[in-house]
């Protein structure tokens, strides 16, 4: 199970980028101030090239020129992780994607490890704003480690939540800084069930009880989401119980990652506490899960296992949840 989430994480953070027609930054030809992208590219993989906003802008201009001339029709993936891109580069990308519209063949956009911030995230959100008409075919968006806070997460969620025609299946926001406020801003997107998003990565964002409760309120109304990662959060019993109640009745979620949220995680001060300790008045850090929350999550797994209508549920954690 752990390897499953690791593979998904690598997919959106480092990119699939395994195509036979992969083009790296060293394959770019310069003609004056313009870049020329080889016509055979199906994957652009510029990871670690440090091209910055200026380079991203040149790349967008090159792609736009190629598309307008009928070229690069096999280009399916654009990977620009750790390229020192900021808000200006994301604005150039959004402008290019909007202009290309449904004529763009790009399915994967991986911007992991840059510095987009809230303004950059808001620019990327613009890609989906009129997608009901534009028909941009993007299916995977990787924005992990980009200093995105609650405002940027909210801008993305608002736009995606109003885009039933968006084909986006995977949204990676791993290791940003959205916190409870950002999780609460994302919850309505899940609840209104408009976009058919199947995988949502919110690990490493400092999501606590408030964020877990907001997401829990939304989950039962959603029929598309299958994978939810909250790994590395500080969810206490209150959040765990809310999450467990939602997962017990969800008709879609099949995998949840709560690693490092659990009492068995090293450094978790509540790790030694049992339900009996809590009942006897033991002091509990509200941001640390005890066996109260742990057993609630186990109960959700058991309830789903006994259901004849809902799919089975697997929870990835620091302990064994599932009978295998």
Structural commentary:
This protein is of the alpha/beta class and 324 residues long. The chain has helices spanning 2-13, 52-68, 87-100, 117-125, 131-134, 150-161, 179-192, 209-218, 237-249, 275-279, 291-306, and strands at residues 22-23, 29-31, 34-36, 43-45, 77-79, 108-110, 140-142, 170-172, 199-201, 227-229, 255-257, 314-316. Strands 1-4-5-6-7-8-9-10-11-12 form a 10-stranded parallel β-sheet, with helices on one face. A two-stranded antiparallel ribbon has the order 2-3. Helix 2 runs parallel beside helix 3 (87-100) and helix 8 packs parallel to helix 9 (237-249). The radius of gyration is 21 Å and the shape is elongated. Residues 1-19 and 264-273 have low confidence and may be disordered.
Order of helices and strands: HEEEEHEHEHHEHEHEHEHEHHE
Kindly state the number of beta strands: 12
- Proportion of β residues? 5-15%
Radius of gyration: 21 Å
Low-pLDDT parts are 1-19, 264-273
Form type: elongated
Strand order of the largest sheet: 1-4-5-6-7-8-9-10-11-12
Helix content bin: 25-40%
Summarize model confidence as the mean pLDDT: 86
Structural class of the helices, strands and pairings? alpha/beta
